[in-house]
Amino acid sequence: MLKSDFYFDLPEELIAQHPLEKRDHSRLLQLGKESGEITHGHFYDILDLLRPGDLLVVNNSRVIPARLYGVKEDTGAAMEFLLLEQKEQDVWEILVKPGRRAKPGARFVFGEGLLKAEILEILDGGNRLVRFEHDPAANIFTILDQIGQMPLPPYITEKLQDKERYQTVYSKELGSAAAPTAGLHFTPELMEKLREKGVRITDVTLHVGLGTFRPVKEDNVLDHKMHSEHYHLPAHTAELIHETKANGGRVIAVGTTSCRTLESVATFFDGIKEADGWTDIFIYPGYEFKCIDGLITNFHLPESTLIMLVSALAGYDHVMNAYKVAVEERYRFFSFGDAMIIL
After folding, report:
1. Which end of the chain is flanked by fewer CB atoms within 10 Å, N or C?
2. In terms of DSSP bridges, do strands 275-279 and 251-254 run parallel, antiparallel, or are they unpaired?
């Protein structure tokens, strides 16, 4: 299986640079998992596509405004930090630009002194370990809300006016460096209508790392090494999944992150149960799904691990044809783009 098998030509103008005014008015391509049949609509049409007794599993992770712009304390030279992972209370692993200014002992100032930082060490791969300093009465996440910017993907070049548009309406667990974007289409009103219909909604947590944007470099897909991300599957979600399956309902993952969480637990523990840990599961054609019956997802980058995952669920030929149709029909792609539902 070659990386090039998952290539498709995507005109640059189809990469969505901003979210639609109304979240649930994005277009929706419905793809038949078995038949490959394609139907076009809008995201709010999921109200008609889902059945009483179905279960939606969403990722409740919340994006940290993790991009910081500041200066080197002694020289005033400009510096950019991108927070990746919290190691201790105020100790983080970060990406820095430019790296030559970020040697151990170097100090930096952000937000006119609201936040200060000292480089502790250089890690393998060039990331840094840094300790932040701030008013003891303050919380670093509150400060990040004040002075941090959303770590938008590199293909989005327009500035985001409202930070909340890069958060799902149900986000609550801080920890992601990128949004679980399939969920950006939901509104509180649409979720309430789904519940009234008898569709249940539950959550998992998977904190999305920047590795989600890391391209596949190896020509042979099987040589690719996935990044590792932290997940939590709570007991109430495990119970609802078991109930749904027992009653003949469908378990539908909202996003590839929810899918990876559910399939990781099902694989690691030979079934669904409460679990907490790290996963680097790589799902590609040939994988046998152990939990999910359907998937709501956005349109992904060519040759990415995400389009490989979708191809595993709906079949390579069906998915590549759906992407061809999406390009022809001028769907909007990537984080702020349109959606696909596979059932």
Report:
1. N
2. unpaired
The verdict on residue 153 lying in a domain is: no
- pLDDT by residue (tens digit) across 47-79? 999 999 999 999 999 999 989 999 999 999 999
53/147 Cα distance (integer angstroms): 44
pTM here is 0.90
**Claim to verify: residue 34 and residue 76 sit in the same structural domain:** no
Give the burial class of 105: count Cβ atoms within 10 A of its Cβ; 0-12 exposed, 13-18 middle, 19 or more buried. Answer: exposed
The tokens of 330 are what? 């001028």
Q: Within a domain: residue 55? A: yes
Q: What is the CA radius of gyration of the chain?
A: 21
Q: Is 324 helix (H, G, I), strand (E, B) or coil?
A: helix
Find where tokens 């840990």 sit: 277
Domain that holds residue 187: 3-63+162-342
Would you say residue 292 lies in a domain? yes
Structural domains counted in the chain: 2
Strand partners, 276: 232
Three-state SS string over 147-200 comes to HCECCCCCCCCCCCCCHHHHCCCCCCEEEECCCCHHHHHCCHHHHHHHHHHCCE
